[in-house]
Specification:
This protein is an alpha+beta fold and 125 residues long. The protein has one domain. It is built from 1 helix and 6 strands, in the order αββββββ. It starts with 10 loop residues before the first helix and ends with a strand.
């Protein structure tokens, strides 16, 4: 009777592969966290631009300087009798609009969590 050779991986080879995968996971984790924070920064800047664009449109339509209010993931921009809303993401904690009469500009500040900064400001003239 002949004995057939069974090929496969040894225990040492399997342990080495598991160790290499573990090391790669540990090395990649900080890069993933940093990428998430940058994505949150970008999302907040996008919300600030959306609110600023909407505020400019409402200012033209309402023929008055806009004001902003924020409640439960919705920013409401009002100027005169005109009002528009902008849906914002779950990371946003506040949206504020400040009209600068000296520079004739509107500063839109979006406060948020989970990024490298706590707020983003966009200015429209």
């Amino acid at each position: 009777m002949t004995q057939s050779a069974i090929s496969g991986f040894t225990l040492i080879e399997l342990l080495i592969v598991i160790a290499v995968i573990g090391i790669l996971a540990v090395v990649m984790m900080p890069a993933m966290v940093q990428a998430r924070a940058k994505a949150n920064d970008s999302a907040a800047a996008t919300v600030a631009r959306q609110v600023a664009t909407t505020a400019a449109a409402v200012q033209i339509s309402g023929n008055a300087y806009p004001s902003c209010s924020y409640s439960s993931s919705i920013a409401v921009i009002t100027a005169g009798s005109q009002s528009e809303s902008v849906k914002v993401g779950p990371l946003v904690t506040n949206v504020a609009c400040t009209y600068n009469s000296g520079a004739s500009s509107l500063d839109v500040t979006v406060s948020y969590s989970g990024g490298t900064r706590s707020s983003v400001t966009t200015t429209i003239e």
